[in-house]
Amino acid sequence: MAIKILSVDDELDLEVLLTQYFRRQIRKGEYAFTFAHNGLEALQKMLETPDFDIVLSDINMPEMDGLTLLGKINELKNPALKCIMVSAYGDMGNIRSAMNKGAFDFATKPIDLEDLERSIRKAAEEVTFIRQSVREHTQLESLKNDLAIAGEIQQAILPNRFPPFAELAGLVDVYASMTPAKDVGGDFYDLFQIDGGRFGFVIADVSGKGVPAALFMAVSRTLLRATGLSGATSAECVGYVNRLLCKESLEAMFVTGIYGIYDCRTGAVDYTNAGHTPPYIIKESGQAEAVAVETNFVMGVAEDFAYQGGEIRLEPGDALALYTDGVTEAFDTQGEQFGRERLETALRELAGAEDARSLLQGITGRVAGFSEGRPQSDDLTLMVIKRIQ
Q1: The predicted structure's pLDDT at residue 158
Q2: Is pLDDT larger for residue 145 or for residue 80?
Q3: Beta strands 255-263; 198-206: pairing state
Q4: Quick one: which of 48, 212, 216, 242 has the most CB atoms within 10 Å?
Q5: Burial (Cβ within 10 Å: 0-12, 13-18, ≥19) of residue 140
Q6: DSSP 11
Q7: Rounded to whole angstroms, how far apart are CA atoms 371 and 377?
Q8: What pTM was estimated for this model as a whole?
């Protein structure tokens, strides 16, 4: 794209001189010259053609001089428009005034065309750099806006109404949250009713960060929900989803997670842990016991892996706390991790919480206090299931 130059000078000979000297650049489409003979005419042409790149202006002109024109150009606040001012060799006072008002460069009469060419080339390089920076900034702002919308959509697809199952509210209390470290996250949780007395629950962590992890998260969540609604055992569901993810997975993408089926009538939990952090059972007495972890592999890597499920039972008043490693791997200002020991201490101290929400918010509060305002290094996701009766 040609660099558009507006030459402003009351000496008509300059138009012929510039057109002749820069004829090769004009013929190649590198430069495009427009000519005006005073400041007022120049402003009119700038209104007609607002995308000039360089203004080459004499200082001493009738009707409106170059310094006044420069002031008017400054009012446009266009950092990509560069002004090169021209005046007599002895007129250094006006030249200094022009430079102080933001002129990019200056030339003296009689004009040294080779020196002027260097100034124009230098100004053109600056214009190109600024416009590229503006384009990149616009693209980044657009991407930032898209990511913010994606983050809102991601939060919207996660269950956010608690209790999630009104007809089971008298039997079980459930609460969950996901706080991404970036605009979008790779963690997710889900809750869905399988039949009149059972519901499925999921907590998972997709490898990686940002948009790729968020997309893989959406696929994984959809597959787990669709499979879980079939009513198959947790191990069967995880195995089936693993095979599907292996077929669709991008290189180095995998999911750690726990899928469980809770029976509200008995407190029984059929669960399968696919390489995820171990959940805890919190007793009303103040005990916090880690649930046994099977030697299962992550999902999305080994297509033929045979997953093994486990079973636990919650007694009335017991709570099951599930979390992603963003909890235990939260850092303080000294670079120390929150760790499982602090988590277990928090769970014991929070055992008497009146409901699932209070217990979960107590954990996140402990993590936030430990981090002391340090930015999250990973997504922070928790779920608490508390048996009422």
Answers
A1: 86
A2: 80
A3: antiparallel
A4: 242
A5: exposed
A6: -
A7: 10
A8: 0.69
Q: If you average pLDDT over each of 54-58, 86-90, 98-102, which comes out highest?
A: 54-58
The closest alpha carbon to 320, from 244, 354, 269, 361, belongs to 269
What's the CA gap between 266 and 351, in Å, rounded?
A: 21
Indicate the residue type of 228. G
Average predicted confidence (pLDDT) for the chain: 90
Omega cis (within 30) before 110 = yes
Write down the pLDDT at residue 372. Answer: 86
| Residue partners of 246: CB distance under 8 A and separation at least 6 | 300, 301, 302, 303
In 3D, which of 181, 176, 168, 169 has the Cα closest to residue 279? 176
Q: Under DSSP, is residue 6 helix (H, G, I), strand (E, B) or coil?
A: strand
- Residue 230 CB neighbours (<10 A): 10
| Percent helix / strand / coil, the chain, rounded to 5 | 40, 25, 35
DSSP per-residue letters across 25-94: HHHTTSEEEEEESSHHHHHHHHHH-TT--EEEEESS-SSS-HHHHHHHHHHT--TT-EEEEEEETT-HHH
- DSSP 3-state assignment of 124? helix
DSSP 185-225: -SEEEEEEE-SSSEEEEEEEEESS-HHHHHHHHHHHHHHHH
pLDDT tens profile 300-344: 989 999 999 999 999 999 999 999 999 999 999 888 999 999 999
Is the Cα torsion angle 106, 30, 125, 139 positive or negative in sign?
Answer: positive
Q: pLDDT > 90: what percent of the chain?
A: 61
The tens digit of pLDDT for each residue in 210-249 reads: 777 778 888 889 999 999 999 999 999 999 999 999 887 6
Fill in the DSSP letter of residue 1.
Answer: -
Collapse the DSSP code of 355 into the 3-class scheme (helix H, G, I; strand E, B; otherwise coil) and give the result. Answer: coil
Please name the helix (run of DSSP H) or strand (run of DSSP E) that holds residue 146, with its range, or none: helix 113-157
